[in-house]
Amino acid sequence: MGPLQGVRVIELVGLGPGPFVGMMLADMGAEVIAVDRISKSEAPQLKVDIHRRGKKSIILDLKQSRDKDILLMLCKSADAIFEGFRPGVAEKLGIGPDICMAVNPKLVYGRMTGWGQDGPLANVAGHDINYIALTGALHAIGFDGELPTPPLNLVGDYAGGMFLAFGMVCAILNARQTGNGQIVDAAMVDGVNTLMSLFHSLHASDMWRKERSSNFLDGGAPYYRVYKTSDDKYVSLGAIEKQFMRIFIEKAKLPDAVLEAHQDPKKWPIVSDILTKTFLTKTQKQWCDLLEGTDACFAPVLPFWEAAEHPANSKRQGFMTLDGVVQPSPAPRFSNTPCKVDLMLKKPGQHSKSILRSLGFDDSFINAFLKHSQS
Question: Residue 18: which H helix or E strand, with range?
């Protein structure tokens, strides 16, 4: 099932966006083999890790020559392999691009880092908040006079992961046309810089003020903002275009002067005050009853654990239940090759036996291998 059926990808399991990349590829139908390590970490582990759905798993100790040989055997039949180590770590382990691609010239080698494979920060530790800080994304999020607001770890980690997944699929297509694999260097900073393209365009067009929350997409405009309701919940308004704002004004029974001030930043504080007071006159549900299903560009602000219950998600089956866990369904959707995930990877090494058997190893080797990996 899925458009990537027949594609085999090896995931060297790590932290950050790597497991998300593997999930995306597995969701699309690729056979993703997660190479897990024997964990000696004392850090708490997730009881449920949705990122591991749809994958197979084998435990390998990549410091051992025998296990490195098994990885290279997997590479021979794979379309791609990816890792999220610091630059140079894979080479030190003896599983860098040169070695892996030597056994399979068509192999795509994906590399996921924060700062990239080169540059002055390449070997420096960092996390999502640091990557979005350096690119300017963090500076733009939040209200004037307050600290910039970290947007969870979506913009750097997971958007960065999407760039690696996209890059690997592009490289796999190229390899099938040319017979040549290549390295995909996916840096989170590069991904975030690309996501900021619109804002660089606005700045170059003299359409972006440097002060935070003074622009039409950063909470400065009253028509693109979150408001509190009378029951201490929240709603979102995104009526950028005048024709949509007109619908909201008519439904909310506001004066025409609100619409006249639509594109006048000098009048935005006055309109913001009017809208703040207006939204406090009704509960979130009352606003939903009034505005949902119209072109007012409105939606309630829901906790993510309630998102599956909203008709916009439930009617489209935007969520599914797998092994008793409610989770987002694969996206995007395809008309001819629909995606379906029907298993959750429950433990590291769950498929070690079947993977080794597929590589031609006999039972005596497999039993000895499993005994060692479980010790």
Answer: helix 18-27
**Residues designated catalytic:** 127, 157
The span from the CA of 80 to the CA of 57, in Å, is 16
Report the candidate in 23, 96, 13 with the shortest Cα–Cα distance to residue 53.
Answer: 23
pLDDT in tens, the chain (375 residues): 899 999 999 999 998 899 999 999 999 999 999 999 876 555 567 889 999 999 999 999 999 999 999 999 999 999 999 999 999 999 999 999 999 999 999 999 999 999 999 999 999 999 999 999 999 999 999 998 999 999 999 999 999 999 999 999 999 999 999 999 999 999 999 999 999 999 999 999 999 999 999 999 999 999 999 999 999 999 999 999 999 999 999 999 999 999 999 999 999 999 999 999 999 999 999 999 999 999 999 999 999 999 999 999 999 999 999 999 999 999 999 999 999 998 899 899 999 999 999 999 999 999 999 987 766
How many other β-carbons are positioned within 10 Å of the β-carbon of residue 7? 20
